[in-house]
Amino acid sequence: MSQLKVSFLPHQEFLTINIRLLQRRVEEEMGIIKSGFSFIVGTACGVYIAQNYNVPNVRKLFNTSLVVAKHIEENYRKPKKRDDDE
């Protein structure tokens, strides 16, 4: 009958590994809190700026630029080559 060898980590290494795992978990949770805080502050600043300053309508600006780009493309496009065989 073969004997199973079970090796146990010494207490110091075991505790060191657990402390590292706990530090990673805390860092991950702090990352979520920091990013959430940044998002809330950014949203609050955006609302304040939108209410108190004359901010251009981005959707209208985008649509206007799209119309201008289509107009330029249609007017300055190279003509299609015609096949001489047809």
TrEMBL record:
Pfam families: DUF4535. The lineage of its organism: Eukaryota, Viridiplantae, Streptophyta, Embryophyta, Tracheophyta. This is Uncharacterized protein. InterPro entries: STMP1. It comes from Salvia splendens (Scarlet sage).
